[in-house]
Amino acid sequence: MAKTDTIVIGSGLAGLTAAIVSAQKGQNVKLLTYGSGTLSLNSGVIDVLGYDQQHKYVASPRQGIQNLPDNHPYRKIGLQAIADSVSFFLKLTEEQGFPYGGDLDSQLPVPTAVGTLKPTCLAPESLNGSHLVDSHKIVIVTVKGLKDFYGNIIEDNLRKVAALKDKTYELIEFDSGLTGGRDITTLDVARYLDTDAGLAALVALLKPVAQNGVSFVLPQILGTKGDTCHKSLKAQLGSAQVVETTCLPPSVNGLRLQNLLKGAFKQLGGEIVEDCRVLRGIMEGAKCVGVVTQAAARKKSYYATKFILATGGFYSGGLAMREFEKPQETIFGFPVYFVPGEENWSNAELFSDKPQGFALTGIMTDENLRPVDGSGQVVADNVYIVGRNLGGYDFCFEHSGNGVALASAYKAGNM
Amino acid sequence: MRKARVVVIGGGATGVGILRDLSMRGVDALLVEKCDLVNGASSRYHGLLHSGGRYAVKDQEAAKECIIENQILRKIGKSCVEPTGGMFVRLDIDDPEYETAWVKGCADSGIEAKQISLDEAFAMEPLLSRHAVSAYLVPDAAIDGFRMSWQNVESAKRYGGRCLTYREAVGVLTENGKVTGVTLRNNITGDEETVECEMLVNAAGGWAGKVAKLAGLDVGVQPDKGTLLAFNQRLTSHVVNRLHKSSDGDIFVPHGSITILGTSSMSIPDPEDTSTSREEVENLLAIGEKTFEHLRDCRMLRSFAGSRPLYIPPGGEVGRSASRGFAIVDHKNDGLDGMMTIVGGKFTTYRLMAEKIVDQICAKFKVTTPCRTAEEPLVPEVAPEKKQAARQYFPAYGTDLAATRLGPERFDKVVERLEKDPESRELVCECENVTLAEVEEMAAEFSSFQINDIRRRTRIGMGTCQGNFCALRSAGVFAKYGKTPGAKDTLGRMKEFLQGRWKGIRPVLVGRTLRETEMTRALYELSFHVNGGEA
Fold first, then answer.
1. Do B526 and A401 touch (CB under 8 A)?
2. Are residues B232 and B172 in the same domain?
3. Of the candidates A71, B15, B170, B396, which lies 20 to 30 Å from B53 by C-alpha distance?
4. Is residue B258 part of a domain?
5. Is this prediction's pTM over 0.80?
6. What is the pLDDT at residue B100?
7. Using the beta-carbon criterion (under 8 Å), do A315 and B475 form an inter-chain contact?
8. Distance in angstroms (rounded) separating the CA atoms of residues B343 and B347
9. Quick check: is B312 in a domain?
10. Which residue has the higher pLDDT, B319 or B329?
């Protein structure tokens, strides 16, 4: 059996990225995963930093990062590694045939399923909402029987955006023919649009309206295979623009990105062990030599020289807190930072202009992303923490989740 | 000007019970409520239809009332009562002498308490602590306070009764020591109006003292806060009570797909205070996990609190030792003719309380029609053949849920919508199986001013996802049917809806609740970007 250099635990954006970066260096990499990460839930665009700590819009993520508090993961990762991770990601997606656009000095506006525009740093062309501003007419394409994408709500809210206020709006409905059974999702429609018949049906509907200066706004339904569907559709619609929105899960674009990353990792000879719950680390002093896993009915240990922990936060199970003020990292039992006191744990308002205390819960690290205790002492020399199980940032509030995942994974992979 | 012979103030269980009873006896009555119905203690409680077992040792009079009313409500309120049965369980740490006293108390009060073996108890309630030492079955049940109250109003309407929500009594009009009317403020528009009446019934629960003050009267009501926890799944199939001297956190009531654990007892100055704290949650968990040891591994949906309106006669006791009995005060004795206050009591005996005060009102009005509220069902049942025919439009077990929520007339209307418009078969709320047609039907109702009003009628947003997936959908429907100026502000309504849920989630932000919250925020702040800001 080949010797494993690096074991990555977790297959979300952070885990897959760390695995790819490690494998690109010629390492033998195993990725152990129990679930499937949160790419199927998030929109698969890379928010690096949208809002500062007072919830002011950040026009340039590069600038914004430099004003973050010292204990923010970005400050540990460092600007250089963040910039490099962005270049890495743009290059990777380009090579894999599903290119993302954007840069660290500006934001792209991505329309959402409720008609707001969300700032993001990197996005594929199909989610780039800049085109809406340049068009004179916006045609919102709803899908018969598809929930959570309501044309009238989207129009009302797009009209509230200064730059889109005076556009002409039109709503049209696409009948995918998939109705009548169970409720349909964006993923069902996307799979249909992967087929020639599906694409032809959509073209037939949109073509008569597709004039110069028209932008179509659709839910995330343009195929599951990278930008193939978006490209073919655009080619058949002349100069009209076609823009997808972010949607409630399942996130088709998140799945596109997941497929891309898994494919890239496998091309590099990486191995993904699925249905594999990591129970605990095997430590020799401050060095981890292996992990014990539970797969089906038996326990199995994996050994390596380097470990990257990408198990996520409360949602994914990397962090847990069964009792108040007793947060836990669920595999190694690393020290977890949290904000004490009921009054600081959460804000009275769910949505407000300050971060939520509980969201800052996570593992603190040194500049090399190794876990530290309360006094700053590294507690594991060869384990690196990436993604949402890092502490000290509220990814929802500041719009930074995938950015931290990408940058920390890139850095950890290169350590 | 609006006129009514009797105006009832307060849309809790007592108020709606009085409205129904008066209407059925042919007395023209109007109920006014400052919020939506059951905004106070009648929804912010266990949803427990007491067998009386809880009171068998301390207050046998209350226990006897409970068992009688329990049997009546099972009969008249089939669609709001889930006959789960109840279990009393003594743990090894509990006083065995209390068990002896309780068995006798039940026998004396006419409550059938049947002892079962521990094996039987564990078979019925597999999660029950193995520290249980004895178990009894009693006829407790679960009851839906929202539904029961609306069905009382529906029933009253059939007899000419009227009901106005979001109307707050702000003044009592008198002439020569006699009530002549009441001034109401519309809490949606701010407009005021006067309603002429002969009799004013103060059934404002925790607010009864405040209402009495409008007429310059003094009524001793101590709001007593009870905090409860709602869990994401049915932990029990029976109502499970700890067999010991009543304390906090010792009753579990299964409701639909959730379980409610409660409750505490704390005197508070303001009945509006429905805040809950981590300390109260921790206290409930610490006691609750004695009965169900794995409690902390279950996801809490939310915590909530209501205030019991405990009646404190001058010099009386407060808190848990205060009486759960009720009192009727005729203010004629205080020099004001035409005003009565009813206070205290408990949900289980609401019908009896209504009967007693309506007996007194009718005696004054020389109305001799007898009370029939114990015989006639609140709403007729949906005919089985209609349910059968409608099954094709609902998800697997959704037909019965909809039938019990809607009652026959509305059920017909919703089914008609479902037949005509196949797209209205879409489920707005997957957790509670609520179709778009039902939400639309309720949104168009006279009483639906806010999304939360629709929520209380349909149960959207009250299940497992706590609004994660239905906030957007219901905001969409509301934009179409809403009557308030803000109805079209979908982002605002969505945030308001989620904020309403958030209030109850904050104190339980631990364990699996954190997990759900992380998702809620990611969906709404990131995927929908509802928190504003330039892009």
1. yes
2. no
3. B15
4. yes
5. yes
6. 97
7. no
8. 12
9. no
10. B329
